[in-house]
Specification:
Elements lengths: L9 E6 L2 E6 L6 H12 L6 H6 L12 H8 L1 H14 L4 H13 L7 H17 L1 H29 L5 H41 L1
Antiparallel strand pairs: 1-2
Helix pairs in contact: 1-4, 4-6, 5-6, 6-7, 6-8, 7-8
Length: 206
């Protein structure tokens, strides 16, 4: 991560109907400060060792670091907390993209655990607001569900020795399952492209 001077010292705090930022507190990424505050609101403990581990590159080997292992094991909890904070703050995509870019500049554009989680939150927001992404996500879920249904039906037909129906049904099920995987990858690529386009648009507008 960048040095502590990169970020303005702030303390995020929830007050009334909105968050406020008070001067004089905070020495790490604003994203970590936001996460700490949200976890405090939800009465979830985050140790100082875990806080430091959030700044490590996401695909680093743990090297026996127990705090790093705990953070990786709690990533879904942290993601949910960051998403709650993001929504509560009015989905400030531009601000979060700026924080992510600043944090990853000093790591050679490699995501840290906190920036990877923040990127997932931004992608979730874009996926939920982009109609094409929403349709692709719905189609992916529908095709995946139908694949499981066909595979289950094929298994049932096999137990009843309904040949050749069971292998035809199973073949269709596998085809739909592969189709669902393709749709998911296509959707992920589209969301990533929209995120990149959003970053470039904000960069151009300053």
């Amino acid at each position: 991560m960048a040095s502590t001077e990169t970020y303005q010292a702030q303390e995020p705090a929830r007050g009334g109907d909105a968050y406020t930022l008070r001067e004089g507190f905070g020495v790490t990424s604003p994203l970590i400060e936001l996460l700490k505050d949200e976890l405090t609101v939800q009465r979830v403990f985050l140790s100082s060792d875990e806080e430091r581990a959030l700044d490590r590159i996401a695909d680093d080997a743990d090297g026996g670091d127990l705090a790093f292992e705990r953070v990786k094991a709690r990533r879904y909890l942290f993601y949910a907390a960051l998403r709650d904070r993001f929504v509560y703050d009015g989905r400030p995509i531009r601000q979060w993209l700026d924080w992510i870019a600043t944090a990853e500049t000093s790591t050679g554009d490699k995501p840290t655990i906190i920036t990877a989680l923040a990127t997932r939150v931004v992608e979730w927001s874009i996926r939920a607001s982009d109609r094409t992404s929403m349709f692709l996500g719905f189609a992916t879920g529908l095709v995946r569900w139908f694949a499981f249904f066909l595979l289950a039906l094929g298994g049932w037909a096999w137990t009843r020795d309904f040949a050749p129906a069971w292998w035809v049904i199973c073949t269709l099920g596998v085809g739909f399952w592969l189709g669902a995987r393709f749709l998911k990858r296509f959707t992920d690529r589209r969301v990533s492209a929209v995120v990149q386009a959003t970053r470039e648009r904000y960069a151009q507008t300053g």
